TrEMBL record:
Protein name: C-3 sterol dehydrogenase
Sequence similarity: Belongs to the 3-beta-HSD family.
Domain of life, per lineage: Eukaryota
Gene Ontology MF, one: oxidoreductase activity, acting on the CH-OH group of donors, NAD or NADP as acceptor
SUPFAM superfamilies for the chain: NAD(P)-binding Rossmann-fold domains
Residues spanning the membrane: 371-393
GO process terms (BP): steroid biosynthetic process
Swiss-Prot/TrEMBL keywords: Membrane, Oxidoreductase, Transmembrane, Transmembrane helix
Xref: InterPro entries: 3Beta_OHSteriod_DH/Estase, Lipid_A_modif_metabolic_enz, NAD(P)-bd_dom_sf
Domain 3-beta hydroxysteroid dehydrogenase/isomerase: 9-225
Lineage, top ranks: Eukaryota, Fungi, Dikarya, Basidiomycota, Agaricomycotina
Length: 454
């Protein structure tokens, strides 16, 4: 925990993630203000402004007495406006860093995105060693990548400590993107279409878990590193020095089982592949479940055994220290962390779970029918046609190459570093999170918002 209580400014605090962060800070009695271009809530001091204007950010920092900035602001993904992404995410983030330095703010927590490492190819269990691609998927991810780089580079400059969190697929109450999109498909009667074979795993993160990770990062940002960064030594060692007691404690502590929805850790290997919680059981389901339950293969609290391929193995910790002599991968400052629910599921399982919940709200809306499965290549061909047609008539196509790619590849991330270094554990499972999101949606719907055809 921080030794003295911080004063927080949540930038983008009127948004989905920002609001949950504000609520969690308020719940634990912290002093928090919001900076945003729009005001949606009135329970905390609000500073109206644009992050690309350094002076506006600086004024808010000075007036609020901020010691810790949590920066969640960004235009939404999916806009066809690269210039806006650059102005807000890249220039805006740099303006925040400059204003923070100007006002001697000590801490900056940045909401990056798991998308910064996605280039359209499958990513399975990737960890923080994977460098962002030279050609990100789109202008949004490119701008997030550059913003993250600026944040990490600023660590240690003029006393500022920085950290970047990379959440994946955020959902929950207050979300306007995932739920609205899934509801539209439901409303349009298109839930029986499936692109790809649904054997690809995808990461989701419940919004309160994301907010929780931000608070942990803020609290631990000034925790001293468990070993001196190489830049503080007289000579940078050419061979790995022995790990310190503090480092060993971080990497050898047994972690509790991760998967909250099915109650045990899912390890997607051929012998113990996770059943997405909501798929029809395959013929060998019994065998798979038995593999999960076998205490000999997955005993809780088993000793941690590492190989040289493991991100937190000694050679890789050494390599990371060598690559970034100002930080170590086992400290918070200057580091990036993936944040997910730790329960990757087959891509179409999550939308289907949401649609099944909607069936209880709108009985009879959906007819029982089989799935129409389009292969990824057919999906890409259709998207190409739709994009050309959309370009001709000047309309955004409903099906795009990005959407097809997104639904057909594996995209899941290793969160062990966040669990060990931040002490992050997902608090709310995928299943409970979806239930909470749909309950919120039901309230919105019954109060008249989003009411359409039913
Ligand atoms: P959101 O759109 O709900 O919230 C963003 C907030 O930023 C909004 O309140 C908006 O008004 C504010 N904002 C935008 N431009 C601004 C500017 N120029 N100056 C000041 N404020 C500005 O988005 P969200 O879903 O809460 O996302 C929060 C962060 O999480 C973003 O940085 C996003 O890139 C990141 N992220 C989101 C997801 C997701 O699935 N939603 C996934 C990964 C990362």
């Amino acid at each position: 925990m921080a030794s003295t209580k911080d004063i927080y400014l949540v930038i983008g605090g009127s948004g989905f993630v920002g609001r949950h962060i504000v609520e969690q800070l308020l719940r634990r009695g912290d002093n928090v203000s919001v900076f945003d271009i729009v005001q949606r809530y009135h329970d905390v001091p609000f500073y109206s402004g644009d992050i690309s204007d350094q002076e506006q950010v600086s004024t808010a920092l000075r007036r609020s007495g901020t010691t810790c900035i949590i920066h969640t602001a960004s235009p939404p993904a999916g806009l066809n406006d690269p210039a806006l992404y650059w102005k807000v995410n890249v220039d805006g983030t740099k303006a925040i860093i400059a204003a923070a330095v100007q006002n001697k703010v000590r801490k900056l927590v940045f909401t990056s995105s798991a998308g910064v490492v996605f280039n359209g190819n499958s990513l399975s269990n990737v960890d923080e060693r994977l460098a962002p691609p030279e050609r990100p998927m789109d202008a949004y991810n490119e701008s997030k990548q550059k913003a993250e780089e600026a944040v990490i580079t600023a660590n240690g400059k003029d006393g500022l400590l920085t950290v970047a969190l990379r959440p994946a697929g955020i959902f929950g109450p207050g979300d306007r993107q995932v739920m609205a999109g899934l509801y539209k498909v439901y409303e349009d009667g298109k839930t029986h279409f499936q692109i790809g074979d649904n054997n690809n795993l995808f990461d989701w993160t419940y919004v309160e878990n994301v907010a929780h990770a931000h608070l942990l990062a803020a609290d631990k940002l000034d925790t001293p590193p468990p070993a001196p960064p190489f830049s503080t030594l007289e000579n940078i060692p050419l061979e790995a020095p022995p790990l310190t007691e503090a480092e060993l404690e971080i990497i050898t502590r047994p972690l509790p089982p991760l998967d909250l929805t099915v109650g045990r850790r899912c390890i997607p290997t051929s012998e113990a592949r996770p059943l997405g919680p909501f798929v029809a059981p395959p013929p060998n389901a019994e065998q798979l479940v038995a593999a999960f339950q076998d205490k000999r293969t997955h005993p809780e609290g088993r000793p941690v055994v590492r190989t040289r391929f493991d991100p937190l193995s000694e050679p890789n910790i050494f390599r990371a220290k060598f690559d970034n002599p100002d930080s170590t991968p086992l400290q918070v400052a200057g580091q990036v962390f993936y944040i997910t629910n730790g329960e990757p599921c087959y891509f179409w399982d999550m939308p289907r779970l949401v649609w099944n919940h909607l069936d209880t709200m709108f009985p009879g809306h959906r007819q029982k029918r089989g799935y129409t499965v389009l292969s990824a290549s057919l999906g890409l061909a259709l998207a190409f046609g739709a994009e050309c047609w959309g370009w001709l008539i000047g309309k955004e196509p409903a099906l795009t190459k990005f959407k097809v790619t997104y639904s057909c590849v594996d995209r899941w991330h290793n969160i062990e570093k966040a669990r060990r270094v931040l002490g992050y554990e997902p608090q709310v499972s995928l299943a409970d999170g979806v239930q909470r999101m749909v309950d919120w949606w039901r309230t919105e719907y019954t109060s008249g918002t989003h009411k359409t055809a039913h």
